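Quick one, tokens below. Sequence please?
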């Protein structure tokens, strides 16, 4: 949805890396996860164009567990 902000909340735990790809935007971001700790992360992506389809792709190292929540942020921060 053009002009909207996609909010992605992620928790990860375990030794290793989790990589998140946002399709079809081409954006991706890595998260370093730690053993014995749940690390929360929040990313917001401003969508400047409409897309017919979208997907999140998660790639995690074997010892990493993760969960996520995604939605549209109705009140994203204003860019300065």
């Amino acid at each position: 949805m053009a002009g909207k902000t996609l909010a992605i909340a992620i928790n990860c735990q375990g030794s290793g890396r989790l990589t998140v790809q946002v399709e079809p935007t081409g954006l991706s971001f890595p998260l370093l996860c730690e053993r014995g700790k749940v690390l929360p992360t929040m990313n917001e992506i401003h969508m400047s164009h409409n897309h017919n389809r979208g997907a999140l792709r998660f790639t995690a190292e074997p010892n990493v567990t993760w969960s996520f929540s995604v939605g549209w942020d109705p009140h994203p921060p204003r860019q300065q």
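The chain has a mean pLDDT of 88. The radius of gyration is 14 Å.
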